[in-house]
Design brief:
- By secondary structure, the protein is an all-alpha fold.
- 79% of the residues lie in helices and 0% in strands.
- The protein contains 16 helices and no strands.
- The longest helix is centred in the middle third of the chain and has 20 residues.
Length: 328
Amino acid sequence: LGRYYRQRAIDESKRVGELRDQGFARLYGGVYSVHTCDWDDARTHLQEGVKIFERLGDRFRRQSCRSLLSNIATAMGEYRDSRAILSEFGPDAEAAWTVSVRVWLLAGMTTLDMFEGRPPAAAVRRMAFARELGLHPAEGYLCDGMTAAALLRSGDVEGARRIAGKALQNMLDAFCTMGSAWNSVSAVAEVFLELLERSQRHGGRDQALHARAAEACRAVSAYAARTRICRPRALVLEGRLALAEQRKGRAVAQFQRGLGWARRLRMPLEEALSHLGLAEALADSDARGRHYEQGVSMLNALGARPWGYDSMSMAAAVASEAETAVVA
């Protein structure tokens, strides 16, 4: 039904609308297509939107289209293309026409840093700057989880836990359906899971931390139920939680579901993480080896070293044995 009305709006804008109407139809068609992960359609609509808004001199909406095109490239593992779009706006997105677009672009830059495993200093600085811009509560979804992840990566455990707790409360108080927040929303659960896994490796049994991790995973799954772009990652997170709870059967099931969704939505980072989760959870050693090699190979091809996943035992193995596994 959504696809029907998307196309109907575009057709009607061409038939009876003005150029601005055609631009709006393309922009909203692109937004809808991003939410449903119809990447090819989304690109077509947004590229047309860029041309129309350029002709109209509408910088805000042209930049909105470009920002969404960057998000698509990131989700599809095309990090170089995504960074090329973001570079149009300057290192701190200073060429953005509005505060909202600037926040979206800063979030996009930070997402790439997280996926490529870059040092966290720039991300910490960007997210602090974004907060200084005066975020609308909805825009907190774009930044809070990534802020917590950057703080944890830089060694500020208490700061990370505090910001992640605030972000989780925000998720519970006001439901978010903004697709561009998918990585930051996921990062909230990733922070709590990483802290839980660290505690367990040192023999800890922090029940309060376990409860927060489980609550965060449920919140991400609720978000993913309405926001398709997040479904593969939500399943990976559920698999991680099941591993932490020593429920390997459930972990296998969730990682397998994550793998299926990642392939269906053409999201290679989530596909690689699902393979690595199965390499941790499966009982059969041959199957573990195959999934491990596939996951490592995909990460290497992407140039990805995502934050928060080297805290898991299988991701630590990826970091130390990647070259050997690929050669083998």
